[in-house]
Each structure stands twice: as structure tokens, then as C-alpha cells.
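Appendix B. One record, verbatim.
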Amino acid sequence: MGKYKNSIFYMATIGGFSVFMYWVILKGKSLEQGRNIVLPGTGGSQWSQFVNALIHNLEHPLALLLLQIITIIVAARIFGWICKRIGQPTVIGEIIAGIALGPSLLGLYFPELSTILFPATSLGNLQFLSQIGLILFMFVIGMELDLKVLKNKANDAVVISHASIIIPFALGLGLAYFIYRSFAPDGVQFISFGLFLGIAMSITAFPVLARIVQERAIHKTRLGTIVITCAAADDITAWCLLAAVIAIVKAGSFVSSLYTIALAGAYVFMMIKVVRPFLMRIGDLYSSRESLGKPVVAIFFLTLIISSYLAEVIGIHALFGAFMAGAIMPENAKFRSVFIEKVEDVALVLLLPLFFVFTGLRTQIGLLNDPYLWKVTGFIILVAVAGKFAGSALAAKFVGQSWKDSLTIGALMNTRGLMELVVLNIGYDLGVLTPEVFAMMVLMALVTTFMTGPALDVINWFFKPKKEEVPAEISMTSKFRILVSFGNPERGKSLLRLANGLVKKLNDNAAITTMHLSPSNELHHYNVVEYEKESFAPVIQESQDLNQKINRLFKASNNIDADITEEANKGDYDLLLIGVGQSIFEGSLLGKVLGFINPDKIINQVTGKEKLYEDSHFDDRTKLILGRSKVPVGVLIDKGLTTLNNVFIPVFSNDDAFLIQYAQKLINNSGSQITMLDVVGEVKNNPDLKETIRAIEQTAPNHIQLLSEKVIDKGYLRQQNLMLISLSSWKKLVETKSLWLADIPSSLILTDS
């Protein structure tokens, strides 16, 4: 009886109180008399009542906002993915997604859908939510600035930076003189219109520039340091100028704006001299992730909100306040990394795309319906490029940079990206820019950001040395060269142990390069060196324990799988070693549906590569690397690989013969005991294969044995340290759901290409 006690109590409690509630409801019905009760949705059939209620729920502001957010994030991811695949920053794709969802595309060809999805009454909610995203983003931008770099490297950088502001600013003001009568809104003074065109021409997108510098692996070079410093100085100067311009526009004249500027000066002084020392003290005490509790986080968020509020009230815009709050955050790199992680994902992934779409909803490219307007747009782009690109390049050349470095600085400083859209939206909100000018300037932002990558490629091609230097580790054709690409440092240790087992005794006739790529959107320029050190520390320690020399390669990447294969193909390596991950599209019905519409998978299906790897149970990145690599690839399924004493090699076909060369390397360098299993009798029927194995037996007796059993004991498999298997044979094991799969040791799946 005791074991049923809980069940009896549960049923009695639920049943008893359910009956009681039903009785109360029946009694309560009698209280409704004389109260004129009107039931919602009365009239019509019950089905029509349900449909009307459902339509009402769909049109509710909260439901509509959530639907808008879903649509925006999906569109931003799709267009961002496309731009990433063609080597462009994802921010370009997100801006294009915003334009595509606006009147320029969706509203033009599907007006009914556009009206349902983005009704005019809902845009206010979208705007305020996007402004919150911008405030958080500007806070991150302020934190990304490394003020120490400005102090130490400011001489040449400040000259280049300020030249890259004043020259395009002046050209923008000159442009305003010619287009003011035709394009300035009625009632807007020339000074307001001219100053906004000037600041729009002189802005640089610091985040995009920093990521391009990382992706091109020039962040450690002198050029990279100068560019980052220039961009940081440019950012600070441009945002201070923008605050002054906003003050002038709102005040109506320069003289009356002096009161606002004076108040802004007092605000900046208070933030630097009063608030900053207090925050630095907190940052020193609470710099670790464990100690950064909710009360401390609340202090910093409160600082951000109060700073933004004061800046908005003073009249220099809340975004300047957010930027200022970020800039005075504690300089402790660990603190900034932890705090940025807390803010960045929500700001960049969820809220910032709302700003792009809101900008897109304002951008009416259809207004440019006259050849003259497109000529003016072209002229605006020309002035923007001439001012920023040429101005920065000439200033860099004047302070002593080479022509190549000067042009590179010019191309990078010409990147406008999101920061340009921020300025343009402020101008639009203040009524300084007409819809036509706004559309022209958005196109200018797109073009100048899009051209950065191609411009850098052209500059590098033009100044390419006549004879390219070949890295020392790949200069000798007699060397056996292995590229170890790892994401997780612990997996990197296993891959390095495996690589060492293949070349341990070759000494100078072998070279191992360890490579770690990190997504560029997860790195910040101020902590790249620290992140690299942390990523390689376990691998370096393992190399010292193994007494194995290694070369290191680290870079930020916008497309990791493509960069891995590019590096392997370019370096002409003999083997690429990678780990395998779990596919997010396997194991569930929804995952398979999403996997079916995965862009990478669609491309592989079109090119025919999907069939090669569709049954391999590899994650999508592994499949892409296998499809693109021109060198042999080894995919390690790590189950705690520590030694290579016992290695098991199943042979399913003649195509597996290439595995013998790896068996020889393991015997020669690690003294491994090799067991080859002739699964279907291929070795027995192949004289050449039998002769090769016999030759190994003669040079290394008792190190290789050939078995022909059909059934392998589980205990025997568990005694093995590693299984070497070809990709085609691995697919057979997976397809047939072999009983081996539950008991196999760590496995190296190899391709012969």
C-alpha cells in the first residue's frame, strides 16, 4: 500500500480541487444576472469566431513585432551568408537585407505582403527597439577602442586620421554647395545640410575595418597597428564632431549651439574625471567572469543608460553617450572581453538587424527614377572615395609610408559600413536629409564598404613582389608536411600527438604546422594576441612534452572551412589533419528539415559533392573541407587518443591500399603494432598488396599482421588505440550500421587525393 501512497494523494488532490473549482464556476454563473455580459466574438459560426480570434492575435502589436524580428533575423542571416561566401563583410549582407525588406524590393513587387509585415503603425516600435540595439552596439564600439594604442602610437596616426576627416569633410561641404538648392529639404539651413554631408563623407566604420585587418592577418604588422590607431582616432574625432554638428543643427545657429557644446564639454569632463576612475576601481576588483556578478553588471549598465540619457537631453544624441560610456570602461582586457560577451550577442544578432531593416524601410531606391539622380549618386560616391581614400593615402605617404601601405590605409579608411548608416539616420530624423539624398547616401555607404576587399586585392596584386617567398617549412620538397587545423585546444593536442606519431623520427625531414582560425566576428583587435596565446598554450605544451617542433598559424576568418582548405592547398601539404564535429542537422526531424534548406548543402547538391559525403555522419564544415581540399585529409574521431601502440586497419577494397603508407610511417616513427583486417578477401587476391605487406614484415618483423576473420571480438577492438580507415570504407560501416561502431577506438578517416 505504501508504494501507492503518492499516487493516491496526487489523484485525490487534483480530482478534489478540480471538482471544487467546477462547483465555484457554476455558482459564479448565477452572479452574472443583470450585468449585461457580452461575450467576445459572438455572432457567426464557431469556426468564424475562431478565425476572427486568430486574425486578431496575429495583428496584435506584440505578435507582429515578434514576426518582424523573426523575418529580419532570417533575412539578415541569409544575405550575410551570401556576402561571407563572396569575401565581403556580413554587415554588407545585413544592409542589403534591410533594403530588400523595404519599399525598394519587397514593397515594390509584393506590396500586400509588405503592408501586412511592416504596417506603418508598427514602425514606431521597430524604431525604438532598433535604437536600443544601436545604443548597446555603440557601447561595445567604445569598449573596443584601445586608448593605450592612441597614447603610444598617436603621432603619424593622428596626422593621417585627421587628414582623412578634414579632406572628405571639406569636399562634402563643397558638394552640399552644389546640390543644396535641388536636394535640401525646405526650411533647412545650408550650414545644417552642409555639415551633415561633411560628417557623412568623413566617417569610417571602425568595427568593419578592425575585422578586415584581422581576417587579412595584418593586425600584428606595423601597418595593421597604424590602421587600427588611425581608425580609433578617426572614431573618437568623428563622433565628437557629430555631437557638435547635432548641437548646431538642433540649436539653429552656431552661436546658440555654443551653450549646448559647453554643456557637452562639462558632461565629457565629468565622465572622464569623475566616473571613469570609479569604474576603473570596480574593473580592477571584479575582472574575472566569476566575480562579475549581477550588482556589478547593473552598475555598468546604469552608467550606460544614464550617459545615453544625459547626451540625449543635452542635445548631442544618446548614441554619443553610449559611445562615451564604452570608451571610459576599465582598460582591463579580461574585463572588457567578459563584458562585451554579455552585451554583444544580443546587440549584434538580435537587435542590430532591426536597425538595418528600419533603414531599409526608409531607403526608397525607386525615388532615383531619373538618369540625373543616378548621375548625382555617382558624383556623391566619387566625392566620398576621393575624399576618404585619396585623402588618407596622401596623408600616409606624406608622413613616410610606402605607396603600398599608403594605398592600403586609404582603402581601409574608406570603409563606412554601419557607422555611415547611423549618421544618415540621425540626419534623416532631424529632417536634414530628404528621402532622395538618404537613398543616395545609403548606396554610397554600400559601395564604399563593398569596394574595400577588392581594392585591397588589387593593391596587393599590383605591388606583389616578383618572386614570392616560400615559407621555410615548405621549401624542401623532400619534407613530409602536415597541417594540423584545430578549433578546440584539447582536440588540437590529440591531433598533434597523431601528427607526431607519423613523423617522430624524421627530424628535419618533416614539418608540422598547427593552425587555429577564429571567426572574425568573435574577436576584438585589443585581445587578439591574448586570445592567440590562450588558444595555442595547450598545444605548445604538448609539443614540448613530445619534443616536437611546430610552426604556428593563427588568423581571424570570415569563412573558416574555405580558409582551412585554401591554406592546405596553397602550402602544398602532404596531409591535412582535422577533428570532426557533430552536425546540428542530424538527430531530429526539425534538424533534417533545416539541413535540407542549408545553403552549403544545397550548393554541394548542385555540384554533386553532397553524394560523396552525405552518409559519412560528418558535420557540415568537415564535409565542405573534404570537398574543397586538394591534399589528403585525415579526420580524427577522438575517443581519448593517448598512444599509437596498437593500430587497426580494415581493408574493404583495393582503394584502401594507400593506407599501407601510413602504416609504414607509424611503424617507422612510433613502433606501432599494425593489424590489417582483410574484410572481403581483397588482400588475399591482390599479389601486389600481399608483397607490400610482406616487405614491411621483413624490415619490421613482428610489427604487422594480416587477419581474415569475418567477426572481430569487441574486446580486441577495445584494445586498439587507433583505427585507420578510408573514407569510402567508413561510409560502408555507417551505411550498414556495423556493430563495430559501438566499440571502435579513436579513428582516423583518410582520403587519398
